[in-house]
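Onboarding guide, step 5: your first structure request.
Type a short instruction followed by the sequence, for example:

Predict the 3D structure of this protein.
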Amino acid sequence: MLRDSFISYRIAIVQSADQVALEAGNSASIIFKHYRELTTPEVAEKWFAILPKDGQLENTLTYDRKKRRVILNGAEIK
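The system replies with C-alpha cells like these:
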C-alpha cells in the first residue's frame, strides 16, 4: 500500500512515468497504466510533506548483526 501511494503521488508531482518507473523499479508502461491521474499535484505535495512529531527524530535505532540485537537510543530491546 505504501508503495502504491508513493508511485501515485510521485507521478502526480514529476509527471514522468519514466522517472517514477526508475525510482520504483517498475516499467513506465505499468506506471502509466495503473498510477497516472489518480491524484493531484496539490494532494501529492501534502502527502510528501508529512513529518514526524517533535522529538521523534532524536531516536536512534540500530541492529547489531553479530549479537543479533536491536538497540533503541542506546538500550537493547528484548
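Each response can be followed by summary notes, for example: The mean pLDDT is 89.
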